[in-house]
Amino acid sequence: MDKWFAPHRRLLVAVLWAFLLSGIRQTDWLTAGLSAAFVLFIICRRRQLGHSLLTVIKLNIFVLFIWLTLPWKIESQGIVQSPAGIFLATQITLKMNAILLFVSAMLTNMTDIDLACAVKRYPLPDKLIKLFILTIRYIAIFSETKQQLETAMKARGFKKGMNKRTFMMLSQLVALLLIKAMHKAETTEMALKARGFYARPSSITTKRCVNDSPKPVNSGQQPCCPSQHNAGNSGSEL
What we know:
single chain; about 240 residues; mainly alpha; 2 strands; globular; disordered C terminus
């Protein structure tokens, strides 16, 4: 996939596909879109097909609950089927699966860093870009922290059940999850800053005067760059 499209173009195609399918109401077109997305999904995800299909199955478990509730309505005769509800449930099922399969195919082999770089290529607000990047990273942090805490609880012989101790342990799990995730989030933010993370490359205002030789700040002459003047006042060089 990297040989055909750059990451930022793949992201743009995925977003456009999602918007396009969201506005279609014809079932035939949605079925054709789902078929095309499924073929592309199989081609792009053939090396990790099992894990990817597991994600699709989890989505369709949610779709199952939609089919258990949406196609029915309550009338004077009791609970009866609703044609409008069946049509809407069909639309939701086709759109959700087609969008998930196509987006999964487009984002194949893309890490969070690749996705962050792809988002930064577009003229979006700086705060939105930073929020998007940190959200991607912090979701992974929450997942890792939750797995570690659950493993530690199982190692201490904890078993879930419908009793008071289970609810107490789960409440403590949520509290520890928030505390540890917050601590790791702060560590991640420090690591991002240490690696020179900015919302946009243009926000870096440090400049150098390559053709000019360095001069002492206390010589009565102004340095050629503001960054050198600030560095001289602080007693350190950039």
